Amino acid sequence: MSKKIRNAVIKAATDSTAEISLKINGETVTREVSTRRLLSDFLRHELGLTGSHVGCEHGVCGCCTVIIDGWAGRSCLTLAVQVDGAEVRTVESLAADDGTLHAVQQAFHECHALQCGFCTPGFLMSLVNYFERTPSPDLSEDNIRSVLAGNLCRCTGYQNIVAAVRRAAELLNAEEAKS
Amino acid sequence: MKPPQFEYRRVLTIEDAIGALAENENTAILAGGQSLIPTLNFRLGMPDSLIDISRIPSLSRIELTETEIKIGAMVRQRQVELHDDIKQANPILRETLAHVAHLVIRNRGTLVGSLAHADAAAELPAVLLTCGGRVAVVGPDGERSIAADDFFRFHLTTDLKPNELITAASFPVLPPDAGWAFGEIARRRGDYAIAGVCVILRIDSSGNCTDANLGACGIASRPVRLLEAEQILIGNRLEVDVIGAAGEAAREAVQAPGDNQASLAYRQQVLATLVRRNVARAAARAGAPHE
User: Fold this and answer.
1) Each residue's pLDDT tens digit, A60-78
2) Which domains does chain A have, with CATH numbers?
3) Which of A43, A112, B46, B270 could make an SS bond with A49 (beta carbons 3.0 to 4.6 A apart)?
4) Do the bridges between strand B49-52 and strand B27-30 make them parallel or antiparallel, or are there none, so unpaired?
């Protein structure tokens, strides 16, 4: 083997493991996981749900945000073993099967609230959960920025994301009026 | 940026948690994980085992009495923030929690976990100290209750013994006529602040300040009471010059050396300003029922 190519990574055979079972985007999965496996890596590496992104791995950037038992949380600050028995939703759950976007996704699309898109899954999940949890959201600039403060975007400068939050509120209201 | 190896133990009762703690000194309690897991990811901590207390039902309780608010070790910060009865009983908690990390972190992070982590720049320890709160602890020899002033020893260091578990924190209910405020100055929203100040005071019918508790975070190796500033306020009318003098007196309390956020002189300036602003805000609220 050439010097540039690394040998196979030795699998840490000493890792303790546990069996976990959880509902992920409506589907029940059961897996044997290393107890130190982060939920973010479990989703991406073991379930192939690569929509949740991994940026900083210490809770600052917000890219890995998912919804755990109805509350948005950082999947990089959660161990997979902690969500045993929980219900987890990721960005893959947002759009309908026919491709119809969720209102928050639609608003991001309309307002050009993303450029490279790396941070977008985290913004979407934080905001989807914020709207779910907040019956009459305060759409002042100050409050929107406070809600967005837990997600970093290095492309947009946030202006269009703020606009998308207001647009999402409109779309959600329209949906509610219809139903 | 991945956690080191550890043994993971899930316990369902407090007794089992105490039993598991007794087996190994190098054990960490896992509650919300919002401080512990970054510590593991950075490998700043390498415990042999983690004890997950999240499934102990009694730790998720919030108990409100006439005199105190008792918050179990698994109560999430966001639950406390959104709890209307807690806001009525001690409105400083909601005002402070808005400054604690970010909303999504508060969804999972526990209030007691922040106290146990005891970062010298963290807001909640300073609020527990200023309010005169306590933590309830269980160990192999039974229960004990530790006053906030005795609990916070140093940055990331508390009076908790390796074989003990914090089960709850208690905050006193504020008198209805008390004025209160929490404020901080941070470089960015959600960051640890350069300094934060918590104020509770009472003003009698003649306009004199009768009680004043002031505390601060981010200025020393642990949360501190601003005793000199308190003495300047007590017995006086809270006019601009008195409030200004309290702010000046607080400067001496800054013990943190300059760091990448602020020089010593700037941090002193920030603290003096925060004391002035928040004493004025608390004074304006005193006497009025909590909104």
Assistant:
1) 999 999 999 999 999 999 9
2) 17-93 (3.10.20.30), 103-178 (1.10.150.120)
3) A43
4) parallel
User: Rounded CA gap, A148 and A65, in Å?
Assistant: 12
Domain B7-52 has CATH 3.30.43.10: yes
Kindly report, residue by residue over B27-45, the tens digit of the pLDDT: 999 999 999 999 999 999 9
ipTM: 0.94
B57-172 maps to CATH 3.40.250.10:
no
The 10s digit of each residue's pLDDT in B219-253 is 999 999 999 999 999 999 999 999 999 999 999 99
Which residues are registered as beta bridge partners of A73? A66
Question: Taking the domains of chain B in order of start, what are their residue ranges?
Answer: 7-52, 57-172, 180-285
- Residue type at position B175: P
Residue A128 gets the label, from left (phi > 0), alpha (psi -120 to 50) or beta, of alpha
Short-list B30, B40, B103, B27, CA closest to A76? B40
Residue of B29, B26, B7 whose CA lies nearest to B17: B29
Interface test with B, best of A35, A39, A136 (most B CBs within 10 A): A35
Please, which pLDDT band fits residue B288 given cuts at 50, 70 and 90? Answer: low
Note the pTM of the prediction, 2 decimals: 0.95
Contact residues, chain B, for A82 at CB < 8 Å: 30, 33, 52, 54
Identify the CATH number of the domain defined by range B180-285. Answer: 3.30.390.50
**How far A109 CA lies from chain B's nearest CA (Å)?**
23
pLDDT of residue B254: 97
